[in-house]
């Protein structure tokens, strides 16, 4: 089975269960909530969602784009207070910071440069794109919906592959149908909590024999030394955030002495499996211990598409034995190619050096 990944979102919560009904405490207060929606609505209520004012949650009602934006930004824990102005002229004050953050993170671009269309309902296709981008969902499925155009295909495929969404029928996803408040709750809840959740490590660099610099995708709070578990006896003694943007943060770790000639691998972060650049090696004879471990990427996972090129942070090593072409990717570091010195790079941008290895 193909392993699927989601960007790590730090989240904690307590759910109170009413054993006799299967409803959570919050969901039980709404007259229209049936069991399959209960956990998801309880989750959304914990993020600030409210009912319709008539004792119902409105599980079959549409949700406005502005309300979807506010809740999506909260679940993603975006830096809403520091995001630059979106430029949209129709966003009410209550949702401006959320929309600013969503645009800055590349999750939405609005309807036009100046129109977000705040009060219109959001479609299933539009929310699929938001969720795929926000949670960095990846994956493919054999399920083909007749109503999904090319510009929505990767988003819908990712949601279905990760078990976040199903079609409205066997043949149609309902790409242009307005999403209901109930289904929106399920989509967002499953994206945040289900599947294989991982921490995406963008880079690890040894600054000196007792200091590491690490970039992590996403927004994380309450960072502690005990959140980082390395192998080979490397102990993290202190951890602090030195820089933070809307989509990533830079962390400095104080460690026990990193031994020359030893490869260290980050096994877990906050108890979660990790993906990306997870290892580094201190070369023998390198006095200051400076090193960055290239991420090993399978050739089948390297190439993107013209519409959605792949982006890799840090150094990358690809075994291209038997591979003739890599395409549509950006490497923010050095690119190591092993096994075929004749491989062709099409629309591949490398910020560092391209190194051919026999």
From TrEMBL:
Its EC number is 3.1.3.5, 3.1.3.6, 3.1.4.16. It comes from the Bacteria. PROSITE patterns: SLH. The keyword Endoplasmic reticulum does not apply. It holds the Pfam family SLH. The keyword Hydrolase applies. This is 2',3'-cyclic-nucleotide 2'-phosphodiesterase/3'-nucleotidase/5'-nucleotidase.
């Amino acid at each position: 089975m193909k392993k699927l990944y989601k960007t790590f979102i730090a989240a904690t919560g307590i759910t109170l269960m009413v054993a006799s009904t299967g409803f959570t405490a919050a969901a039980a207060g709404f007259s229209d909530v049936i069991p399959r929606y209960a956990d998801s609505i309880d989750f959304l209520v914990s993020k600030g969602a409210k009912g319709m004012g008539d004792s119902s949650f409105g599980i079959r009602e549409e949700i406005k784009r502005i309300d979807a934006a506010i809740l999506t930004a909260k679940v993603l824990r975006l830096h809403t207070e520091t995001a630059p102005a979106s430029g949209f002229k129709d966003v009410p004050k209550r949702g401006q910071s959320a929309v600013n953050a969503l645009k800055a993170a590349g999750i939405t671009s609005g309807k036009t440069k100046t129109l977000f269309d705040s009060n219109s309902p959001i479609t299933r296709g539009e929310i699929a794109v938001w969720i795929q981008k926000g949670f960095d969902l990846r994956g493919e499925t054999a399920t083909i919906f007749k109503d999904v155009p090319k510009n929505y295909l990767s988003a819908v495929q990712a949601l279905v592959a990760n078990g976040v969404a199903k079609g409205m029928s066997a043949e149609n996803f309902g790409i242009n149908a307005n999403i209901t408040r109930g289904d929106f709750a399920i989509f967002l809840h499953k994206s945040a909590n289900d599947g294989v959740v991982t921490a995406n490590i963008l880079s690890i660099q040894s600054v000196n024999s007792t200091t590491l610099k690490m970039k992590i995708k996403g927004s994380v709070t309450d960072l502690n030394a005990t959140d980082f578990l390395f192998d080979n006896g490397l102990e993290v003694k202190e951890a602090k955030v030195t820089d933070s943007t809307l989509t990533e943060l830079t962390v400095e770790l104080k460690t026990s002495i990193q031994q020359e000639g030893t490869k260290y691998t980050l096994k877990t972060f906050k108890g979660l499996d990790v993906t990306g650049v997870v290892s580094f090696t201190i070369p023998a004879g390198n006095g200051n211990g400076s090193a960055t471990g290239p991420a090993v990427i399978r050739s089948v996972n390297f190439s993107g598409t013209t519409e959605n090129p792949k982006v890799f942070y840090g150094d990358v090593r690809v075994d291209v034995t038997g591979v003739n072409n890599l395409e549509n990717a950006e490497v923010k570091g050095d690119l190591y190619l092993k096994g075929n010195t004749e491989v062709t790079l099409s629309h591949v941008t490398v910020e560092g050096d391209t190194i051919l290895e026999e």
